Amino acid sequence: MILDVLRSIRTSSSSSTTTTTGGRIILQSFGFYSVSTSKMRDIKVKSDSRELITSSDEEEEAAAQIIESVSIREKEISSSSLSVKSTPEIEKKYVHRVYDAIAPHFSSTRFAKWPKVAAFLESLPCGSVILDAGCGNGKYLGLNPSCFFIGCDISHPLIKICSDKGQEVLVADAVNLPYREDFGDAAISIAVLHHLSTESRRKKAIEELVRVVKPGGFVLITVWAAEQEDTSLLTKWTPLSAKYVEEWVGPGSPMNSPRVRNNPFFSLESIPETEVSTKEQKADNSPFIGLESIPESEESTRELKETKASIVEQKEESLEALKKSQQEYFVPWHLPYHRAEVSGASASALATGLAKKDDRKGAVVYNRYYHVFSEGELERLASRVGNAMIVDRFYDKSNWCIVLQKAALNQD
Amino acid sequence: MRLITHNMLSCNIKGVTNGFPLRIEAGNVIKKEVDFNPDFIRHMFAKLEWKALVEGARSMGYAELPEDSPDAAVLESDESFLKKLHHALLELHLEEGALVCPETGRKFPVNKGIPNMLLHEDEV
């Protein structure tokens, strides 16, 4: 779909007749869809988001670049036969390797038991077998002493920390649990799914949680919310750009997500076919300004000034929309130097550019990949899992949370 | 790894339909005492694949469990049976060894008590 849109811009701009000043394309840096052109500029916002305003001279070049990068992606998607259970590069580099490198330090900061999770665990009947998929440092394992916990995580260093505490744990992948079905009485997934980089993987992980619990069993899932209570946190996060789209593999990649397919501004209708005054454009209440081609023919100087002013305004609106719609981030982890030396992983991470030094803070800075969830997103995803029902949903401390119940045996 | 976990573990290599139970190659088995809770053991019983447990226990050097799955009466009243079940499920630890897929022969290593069930790229 985006290809059609872009081709239509290209067509319309190349068919413009006389003016050289008319016709600009505002490319909204819509999360990771921003595209590098020679005129990329840093906007004075606290986040690192980039947005592009190209002059009329370069609009075709920009459009061409977008088309090219999109078509490469589409080819990759269509030819990709990689399983949903294959780990994409972005997760290998910015989730797995990072947690392996920071494990002891990470663990030392993860001790506070979240009351809502504790309440869920304590509500389970005595003798329950509780499966924690993505257990991290094992914070919740054994929280209810009357229950038996089995934890798994993809990070061996984190699992080692759990094992040293006497917990029953194994190394496994939350997207492909090595468990036969119906065994657990309950399962939890605390701050895990937001590290999965495609929608299909996130859905698969939910399916796995449901699969491994008994009919009638409960599943608690919590994920980071796009809607953070402490908005100053967002300034420390790096929104992802198209550079990282290259690393994303397979169906369910961002280019294929429902968010793109269903987003009205990526549809042909959002491109004004006829001359539209700038006032009319401003009146458009859609927060997604995006790909608007400002009509080319016969713009007077005055109109040009108005156009420029409205561009600035639209840019600010689109940045606001960007902040609201941005869901892909790198979130930094500062590993103090003395900690980094203990783990040899940091030396190679620095050498390969996976991490950077911050001498001012005396720390090696790693980036962790996150897909933060927007309101309702977790529910929508979970509701597509056939044999489970949502029985509770809440927002707590910047996390979206749901409780699912697996269908009982005599239902389907 | 305890036998309670082993009773749940299954080979999840793509295409495998017969990945349970994993055969245990026991290198080093240790015993660690755990408080006996009969109600928990009774609750666990319903989940267990009995043959897999008996075979797994034997692989770990414990042959005291009856071949056939006992009936409800035994579960209710026979404390010595429950204690054997408790011992097998919770007190035996496979520290070093491997878990072998019955269909493919793939070995999942167990080191320092931790099974590594991660698959390779081509198994997924």
Secondary structure tally, helices of chain A:
13
CATH class of chain B: Mainly Beta
Distance between the termini of chain A: 37 Å
| Order of neighbouring strands in the sheet with most strands of chain A | 6-5-4-7-8-15-14
Quaternary assembly:
heterodimer
Summarize the helices and strands and which ones pair or pack.
The complex is a heterodimer of chains A (412) and B (124).
Chain A: H1 2-14, E1 25-27, E2 41-42, E3 50-54, H2 59-79, H3 89-109, H4 115-122, E4 129-133, E5 148-153, H5 156-164, E6 169-171, E7 184-190, H6 199-212, E8 213-224, E9 238-239, H7 242-245, H8 258-262, H9 278-283, E10 292-293, H10 301-325, E11 328-336, H11 337-342, H12 345-351, E12 355-358, E13 363-371, H13 377-383, E14 388-396, E15 399-406
Parallel strand pairs in A: 4-5, 4-7, 5-6, 7-8
Antiparallel strand pairs in A: 1-3, 1-10, 2-3, 8-15, 9-11, 11-13, 12-13, 14-15
Chain B: H1 3-6, E1 23-31, H2 38-45, H3 50-59, H4 72-77, H5 79-91, E2 92-100, E3 107-111, E4 114-115
Domain Methyltransferase type (chain A): 131-221
Protein name (chain A): Alkylated DNA repair protein alkB homolog 8-like
Keywords (chain A): Methyltransferase, Transferase
